[in-house]
Amino acid sequence: MIPSLLDNFNTYIKLIKEHEVSESSIIDIDSCKFLTPTIISPLLNYMLTYNKKIKKHHNENINAHFHRILGLTQHKDTTLPFRWLNKNVDNSEELTKEILKIMNPIEGMNNALKYIFHEVISNVYDHSEFNLAFVLGQNYPKLGLTDFCFMDNGVSIPGSFREANFKVKNDCDSIIKAINGFSTKDNDEFVGRGTGLNSIINIVNKGAKGDVLIVSGDGLIEIKNSNVYAKFIPKGFLKGTLVSLRLSSNKPIDIYKYMDGFKYKISKNLK
User: Fold this and answer.
1) Which position among 28, 131, 139, 210 has the lowest Cβ density within 10 Å, counted as fewest Cβ atoms?
2) What integer pLDDT is reported at residue 184 of this predicted model?
3) How confident is the model at residue 223 (pLDDT cuts 50, 70, 90)?
4) Given 3.90.190.20, 3.30.1330.10, 1.10.10.10, 3.30.565.10, which CATH number is that of 80-269?
5) Are 99 and 139 in contact (CB under 8 A)?
6) CA nearest 201: which of 233, 242, 161, 245?
7) Cα–Cα distance, 215 to 241 (Å, whole number)
């Protein structure tokens, strides 16, 4: 089995902690034994935010994979290489087609997957106020799983609540409120969104038996096997919002069974 989305993100945190101790302008990733979208995406976000460089990995196979997923060399048909979200024109339809191509889902999944990816990307356009946003993906055919990671450097979920002067306990609480259907409008009115993020998580977690990881500001929420885990990350380690999804490509999904709102509560706080 591959490590969980949370384990992947913890690997990223470990890399950055080691980097900050070194006080170097180059991030050393040699301690990383594998590279997944949920490690690479925040790593690129950190690099772009703080004007860093990433050192070539000593393992040539890992280095070659890194280059493929960045789109620097020819990628395999199981990889969705680095793709920008166009800031000026919504290119969600184009990106969704590329995502579906690497998943090669069974009949009965296409509509659900189109809905999931369209909603995730639309949320970035509608709420994040991003300058940079991108998506990476990796299919694991032997496991029947695919990981996707959507990353933007926008205002963040907690930041949008603060701008609207809406009281929240902390950044994890902000993410939970967003998951449970709340958002802010341009007029600073706090409103329920109904579907959107809540439906995405219902479909992924309950329909596709998959996992969801959302990191925004200094908060992290993982939804796995219908359990909700919360954790705080070091301040400044992520600018914006990261949404990682792990999906099975062989489970037919009737999306209409999962469109009704479901209230998520934190099951456990992690250190």
Assistant:
1) 131
2) 60
3) very high
4) 3.30.565.10
5) no
6) 245
7) 6
Helix axes 110-127, 92-103, angle to 10 degrees: 140
* 27 token code pair: 């991030």
State how far the Cα of 213 lies from the Cα of 177, in Å rounded to an integer: 15
Confidence of residue 185 (pLDDT cuts 50, 70, 90): low
Angle at 21 between CA 15 and CA 24, to 5 degrees: 85
Residue among 266, 154, 260, 248 nearest 209 (CA): 248
Query: Which are the contacts of 232, defined by CB distance < 8 A and separation ≥ 6?
Result: 170, 171, 172, 218, 219, 220
DSSP H helices in 79-149? 92-103, 110-127
The structure tokens listed for 123 are 């949320």
Terminal Cα-to-Cα distance of the chain (whole angstroms) = 24
